[in-house]
Amino acid sequence: MKDCIATAISAPNIAFIKYWGNRDQHLRLPANGSISMNLGGLESHTQVTFDPALRADRLVLNGLEFNGQPLQRVSAFLEIVRGMSGTSTFVRVDSSNNFPTGTGIASSASGFAALSLAAAAAAGLTLDQRQLSRLARRGSGSACRSIPGGFVEWFAGENDETSFAQSIAPHEHWALNDCVAIVSREHKPVGSGEGHTLADTSPFQKVRVDDAPRRLDICRRAILERDFEALAEIAELDSNLMHAAIMTSSPPVLYWQPATVGVMRAVQEWRKKGTPVFFTIDAGPNVHVICPSAYTSQVTSQLNTIPGVKETLCAPVGGPARLG
Ligand code: DP6
């Protein structure tokens, strides 16, 4: 093994067309393609060390050593990297995020994207962006979208080779901002990992998946043409479709709090009155409110007046994963 230590930095992302449900849970081949934007200024820093002295993998997240399920997930991922590079050496992973957990910003996306890049580099593998994206997908589906920069599409694909993400436009293409309205920091009742396994139990999932190519086309075109109104409509529809499937799965899950709905209503009202703004919600109660950067301070101060909004966290469009 040439280099045995490497550090990588990666941004989380917010999806406008959501990934929900897998055709192949083990390979993380998604039920449908998805489109997202990376969140700039928010970062996971991950250092990977292949250390012959270790008797097992070790995982340190934000300064705390983790065992159990989080370590097992990282170890299973590292097994893939070990298989690719023909080594059996155990690894120490040291990762930290500069954004707080419980904000509705998935740290698994940026964490596994940074881990993929750092682990591949430390193992001496030379992977192109497509191969890195495929590798990141095995750790966390949405992580494959944090490898390329800016606005990104993940092609559902047919198999491991064809399911990867690629940039639609670089971050400087369109100055949008994500203002996350935080209504709760409590732990989610059902994580997205478990949620994906429930997706097919909803009668809405098939409808959502069958219609995905149409929504992807509209979303991709809206981004390329910087058509805010078209992006707003398709992203809100897509978010509502995902939550319709989530609310009608067996068992059903309701992620929204009263303040979640308060923000959704307010955002739609502001848009009707002429402010370019829309919402999208991941598997949690916090609301991602997207607007052109010029409207960030107006939208942030309006969000902060809504009952139940504890605080807002803002991010512009971010770049690709990079070595540190
Ligand atoms: C609602 O990528 O977190 O944020 O593959 O199990 O790690 P795993 O799931 P994850 O799911 C993301 C779900 C979502 C929608 C999205 O980001 O597309």
Please indicate the count of domains: 2
The kinds of small molecule bound in this structure are: ligand DP6
Rg, Å, rounded: 19 Å
User: What is the CATH-assigned architecture of the largest domain?
Assistant: 2-Layer Sandwich
CATH topology of the largest domain: Ribosomal Protein S5, domain 2
- Secondary-structure element sequence? EEEEEEEEHEHHEEEHHHHHEEHEE
The unreliable regions are none
Helix content: 25-40%
CATH class of the largest domain: Alpha Beta
* Largest sheet strand order: 8-7-9-6-1-16
Structural class: alpha+beta
Instruction: Bin the strand percentage.
Output: 15-25%
Describe the structure using short key phrases.
binds ligand DP6; 9 helices; 6-stranded mixed β-sheet; Ribosomal Protein S5, domain 2; alpha+beta; single chain; 2 domains; 4-stranded antiparallel β-sheet; 324 residues; Alpha-Beta Plaits
